[in-house]
Design brief:
590 residues, 7-stranded mixed beta sheet, 28 strands, 14 helices, 4 domains, alpha+beta, 29% helix, globular
Length: 590
């Protein structure tokens, strides 16, 4: 490892040379209290900025062991420090002059959700902070003195104020850690007490706008119906009161613009922890919850949708169904099955974004089109079995069909953004009317092991160091995942991301627009890297989609980001849930 003075000497030696001379700076340099590593140098000042990271030993950083000895507090600390570094960088961004991206200082810009990101990683030994720097130039001529200013003046100040405990606002930092522990306590409380979700009184659910995830000023604070209100004593915040949504089938109804979808949207993002001031800090949902919707045109591969669709006129086998262009009802049926495979315990559904013929068929329609002529068994007739036989609850926003009242355990009416428990009233009304058919025979949980992974994918590339170690082979039979020796590390599959909505691998696009619980484009980038890693294993390495997803997630949990990256881990990745990983694999058409 070189010293910081050697870096300064190198900078002076390449000043005013052509931009490619910057490549000679790659490597690690010891500064007073940290190590700076230049991982990748951009090709010119107009290209994507250079990738760097710093490492600080934990004993030097000085954060208490209790701030990173458990996953929930470690992620909260990493999130807090990433936000601190982003604030510090904003004071120096583009203060160094030059053309193109010269002088850029950038790190992940965190949103309202607290996610595990590659930008900041805390291990048992050290703190790692990854970021981007635009190496300065005039035209394509190196301006080394401006980079010297960044690396020896701006960056040390940012590191000092972001990576050392003694210089933090310790009260704010402790509040962030305490909040994470309270949120984790609530998640455990849900599991232990048969709850699907909890919404604290006073929560602010509406968002500022369609393009801003900040809380809406002046909105009506949430207030639980008395019949559903419980009190929970948190480790740090003390007693809080709010609405407990019990496992089972919960129906949310009400007039238009009264807050039905707003509540559901808060619940769907309640699978993540949120920062203080978001308004949804104590909106906590079962962390396996999956939001379902119709996705016309999506691909489906080897899904057993016979629970919902069978006896097709073309005699196509729906127990192993594939299509490149699914209808709304078929895509939503596949979504249910794929969610079950991903381990969900809660489905979230908004009737507005669902296929009507998948959700319900009224009695008059069944008289006109007889049941033996209709291949679709609606969700209405499967929801009860999903809960009682598969342990999967449902929270459903409905507005057009009263048939759902007959399957609901709880009915909430949103009235001017305030929920009212009308369960007893609805049950009384149901007793006064003829019940529609609400349950169908033939429910069975599919055998997901039959869904093969993309064996024989015709792409080129190589797996990373993340392939399974030999000691783990027994878990996957006689054919554990391993990389193809015909490929080499310079022949990787090309990955491009397009914001939060999609990415491509070797020109094959994966459309994630309707995977609504993705919170950040960095999660999409991580999904692209993870899927690429799976595709670059030898054909036949995985017997099923589930095996591939579990292997990828096990690698991520045990080894971090390294197995999915090339020569270095970049800033700009965020950990997705395993439910989104399944959704990603299921939408890949390759």
């Amino acid at each position: 490892m070189k010293s910081s003075s050697e870096l300064r000497t190198l900078l002076r030696s390449i000043d005013h040379k052509g931009y490619p001379a910057y490549k000679s700076l790659a490597g690690s340099y010891q500064f007073d209290r940290y190590v700076l590593t230049i991982d990748h140098v951009q090709g010119d000042p107009f290209a994507s900025p250079s990738s760097l990271h710093i490492e600080v030993l934990n004993r030097d950083a000085g954060f208490p062991d209790t701030y990173y000895d458990r996953e929930c507090v470690r992620i909260a600390l990493q999130d807090y420090l990433t936000r601190q570094m982003e604030r510090q960088f904003s004071a120096y961004n583009f203060k160094a002059k030059g053309s193109g991206k010269s002088g850029l200082l950038a790190i992940s810009r965190c949103g309202q959700e607290i996610l595990e990101r590659s930008a900041c990683q805390i291990t048992a030994q050290k703190l790692i902070m990854r970021f981007h720097v635009g190496f300065p130039a005039f035209g394509r001529t190196i301006n080394a003195m401006e980079l010297d200013k960044i690396l020896f003046d701006f960056l040390p100040k940012c590191v000092e104020k972001s990576c050392f405990f003694s210089l933090q606002d310790q009260q704010k930092l402790k509040a962030a850690i305490d909040l994470a522990e309270d949120q984790e306590f609530l998640r455990d409380y849900l599991k232990e007490n048969g709850l699907a979700a909890f919404v604290a009184n006073g929560s602010v659910l509406p968002r500022k706008s369609g393009v801003s995830n900040l809380p809406m000023a002046g909105s009506v604070p949430f207030s639980s119906p008395a019949s559903m209100e419980i009190t929970i004593k948190l480790p740090h915040a003390g007693e809080i009161r709010g609405m407990a949504v019990r496992q089972g089938i919960t129906l949310i109804v009400g007039g238009g613009y009264h807050g039905k979808s707003t509540l559901l949207e808060a619940l769907q993002m309640g699978v993540y922890n949120h920062i203080a001031g978001d308004g949804r800090e104590y909106v906590i949902t079962d962390d396996t919850a999956v939001k379902l919707r119709a996705e016309d045109g999506r691909s489906i591969r080897q899904a057993d949708i016979s629970m919902f669709i069978s006896d097709l006129p073309n005699k196509k086998d729906t127990s192993c169904f594939s299509t490149e262009d699914a209808s709304g009802s078929t895509s939503q049926a596949a979504g249910v099955i794929e969610g079950m495979e991903a381990g969900t315990r809660l489905f979230l559904i908004d009737e507005d974004t669902s296929a009507t013929n998948f959700m319900v068929r009224d009695e008059f329609m069944q008289q006109v089109v007889s049941r033996n002529k209709e291949p679709i068994t609606p969700f209405l007739e499967r929801a009860r079995d999903l809960y009682e036989k598969a342990g999967i609850s449902t929270i459903l926003v409905a507005g057009s069909s009263g048939a759902f009242f007959y399957i609901a355990d709880t009915v909430l009416q949103m009235d001017c953004y305030r929920p009212v428990d009308i369960t007893d009233h609805v049950k009384q009304l149901c007793g006064e009317h003829t019940s529609p058919r609400i349950q169908s025979p033939g429910f069975a949980v599919p055998d997901f092991a039959k869904r093969s992974f993309l064996s024989g994918y015709a792409g080129k590339g190589v797996a990373q160091s993340g392939s399974m170690e030999s000691g783990q082979a027994g878990k996957y039979g006689n054919n554990p995942p391993r990389r193809d020796p015909r490929n080499n590390a310079n022949d990787r599959k090309k990955v491009k991301t397009f914001g939060i909505d999609s990415f491509s691998i070797d020109r094959e696009t994966v459309d994630l627009r309707y995977v609504e619980q993705l919170a950040d484009s960095e999660q999409t980038a991580a999904l692209a890297y993870m899927l690429r890693c799976a595709l670059e294993q030898r054909p036949g390495s995985f017997r099923s989609v589930g095996q591939a997803a579990r292997w990828l997630y096990q690698n991520l949990n045990q080894k971090g980001w390294e197995p999915f990256c090339s020569s270095f881990v970049p800033c700009g990745l965020a950990k997705p849930r395993i439910q989104e990983l399944y959704a990603c694999i299921n939408r890949f058409r390759g």
